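Explain this record to help learners:
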Amino acid sequence: MSKINLDEIDSLHYDVLKELGNIGAGNATTALSQLLNMKLDMKVPKVDLVGFDKLASSICDEEELVVAIYLMLEGDIEGSMMFMVEKKAATCLVNQLMGRPVHDDRDFDEMDLSALQEIGNIITGAYLSSLSTLTRLTIAASIPYMSIDMAAAILSVPAIEFGKIGDKALLIETQFGDEVLINGYFILIPELASYDKILASLGL
């Protein structure tokens, strides 16, 4: 039986989860900055516990096309994680990586999709690395799966997968960029027992 109740989480535990979200997003932005070889500014992330039924609408219009990288977590922390950006933001990222004009609105070709996959791998890897370092817990991630679809369709996957153990996800919304600010969303869905391990590792 988990000691944490996400419906009645106290302010101390909530602040800790928010700080983990902040640090993870910062680490991911630094990794992306190195990949793109440019300085990226990042606004302080917004972190919230959101019900699965409100996830899509908390991010964008449910019919908005988005690019998502989804992976399963194993080891000391079990669950899943997703990184999501709107398709037009993903196009800006790929254009910057490929040295094209930022607002070049072309369709993704095979090389672009490969670049997007790599961006997703690096961002999620950096996020999980910082979480592992902070908590001193082992986190193994599956091979990431990338999807381009409407927000509601993509977010139905973790809702179905983890609706059995809980109904909330940790949503970390961050803005980063240089000439163009991009909204990126990390969605972390640990199993309830993993929340206990995370808080215990921090002495709570």
